[in-house]
């Protein structure tokens, strides 16, 4: 049998290559390639192991004709186009906990370095200045630390900061009151955090909700003399506005490990008073790199050699025996969970999964796990089958799995319902043949569609002329429609349109779709 071939394209602890070889894979290590070089060679490989320097674009994935798995030795997968990988049947895995402690420690190091201006004092002392009177620091004891994001890393930062006798407050819409008490933080809204924090640290993924969360407007609401640390993702802070506030003295110090554009070769922040930065070193300790290298190589080898799946972001975990039977049901479940997560708004506290027909006779746990993995991705990029049920519990999400003995019109049916402020909202799907997931109902409207790649969901008034208008709008922006599905409750009422397109729809085009005559709602979806 030919050995699976793996490419390690970023600098990674040598334990990764050792494990791949021991587990029967062939390994090449080629770091520092340009996107063109990667595209030229990726066709040879079954597995791609990366850190943050390799960006896996749809073009790379399209060229990766043999690729089965991408393994991220780390947490953030924003450098991988997951919809493109899923569409090509490529599993994307990460190592969700391997570098959390290390990154939290980096944030704490940044807090201490800012409080005492250690980098600048060091540089000037070594330059022979002995500038004792130039530096007056602040104690962190008794100060308020405001966490934006209180997941794995935020919680570890909270624990360390409490050890430093700081008072910790947190803004995280998905942190439950119970969990806040468990980790000893006061849950607050963003305005309160901005007004009260002496130090602010960010620990969220970069999503549509968190992008620019420290915007010019929000930075202006911070307490005078605040110190800000970002060891999460570039793009969370308006860097130009931060530079101005450092220059004016409103912000007393800022420390960034991550930048909107990396590598950051220039920035308005460089040279500002009390600005400290590191080149995305948050995960760079021997311990974390050994952890994530071992874990990613083990997970990828499991998949390539034995078919086992763990910590996958776009596929449910599976044991070898159950795999063939459950796999199509879990794919359907994950898509329905993701659909509900993308469409339903507000703080959702209840989700129910109903199974009838063939699905009622199967092990419900992996199916529930798959629904939750899809659904919880609205909160965190690092959710997968393993941690989704745990995260759901931590966030106080009530989950129910109901089996119906009744026979319906489909040989198998899964229904996912969430309780929203406007009442219950549910979507349902079945399998066509034995393994093709299909949506059959969305929020009470019968509609048949494969949930794949980039899609657009529209609710509009059911009136003549609308299909022409939406087709023209997309055509004008060179957006090719792949599939087109319509549904409605009654003629002349409210109609639902679900279409698939060949590329993501830009935000500006969504805005124009919302403004079309008769449109009540237009939401882009990705699977
Ligand atoms: N600098 C580095 O080298 C480095 C290393 C590891 C992780 N990271 C990054 O750190 C970030 C956090 O990692 P983690 O493991 O703690 O992730 P996590 O998923 O455990 O926690 C993220 C938290 O952010 C919260 N969140 C989501 N949307 C939010 C919003 N709109 N407002 C406030 N909070 C929101 C979530 O509820 C969750 O609690 C990720 O972006 C990860 O990529 C950076
Ligand atoms: O690999 C790295 O050095 C950074 C990893 C970090 O950004 C992550 O999200 O895990």
TrEMBL record:
Coiled-coil regions listed: none
InterPro entries xref list: ACT-like_dom_sf, ACT_dom, ASB_dom_sf, D-isomer_2_OHA_DH_cat_dom, D-isomer_DH_CS, D-isomer_DH_NAD-bd, NAD(P)-bd_dom_sf, PGDH
Domain ACT: 454-517
Ranges where the D-isomer specific 2-hydroxyacid dehydrogenase catalytic domain occurs: 6-314
Transmembrane listed as a keyword: no
SUPFAM superfamilies: ACT-like (SSF55021), Formate/glycerate dehydrogenase catalytic domain-like (SSF52283), NAD(P)-binding Rossmann-fold domains (SSF51735), Serine metabolism enzymes domain (SSF143548)
One Pfam family of this chain: 2-Hacid_dh
Source superkingdom: Bacteria
Limits of the D-3-phosphoglycerate dehydrogenase ASB domain: 325-442
Catalytic reaction(s) noted: (R)-2-hydroxyglutarate + NAD(+) = 2-oxoglutarate + NADH + H(+); (2R)-3-phosphoglycerate + NAD(+) = 3-phosphooxypyruvate + NADH + H(+)
Enzyme class: oxidoreductase
Keywords carried by this UniProt record: Amino-acid biosynthesis, NAD, Oxidoreductase, Serine biosynthesis
A GO molecular function held by the record: phosphoglycerate dehydrogenase activity
Occurrences of domain D-isomer specific 2-hydroxyacid dehydrogenase NAD-binding (ranges): 108-282
Keyword NAD: yes
E.C. number: 1.1.1.95
Biological pathway: Amino-acid biosynthesis; L-serine biosynthesis; L-serine from 3-phospho-D-glycerate: step 1/3
Task of the protein: Catalyzes the reversible oxidation of 3-phospho-D-glycerate to 3-phosphonooxypyruvate, the first step of the phosphorylated L-serine biosynthesis pathway. Also catalyzes the reversible oxidation of 2-hydroxyglutarate to 2-oxoglutarate.
Family per similarity comment: Belongs to the D-isomer specific 2-hydroxyacid dehydrogenase family.
Name listed for the protein in its UniProt record: D-3-phosphoglycerate dehydrogenase
Organism ancestry: Bacteria, Pseudomonadati, Pseudomonadota, Alphaproteobacteria, Sphingomonadales
Gene encoding the protein: serA
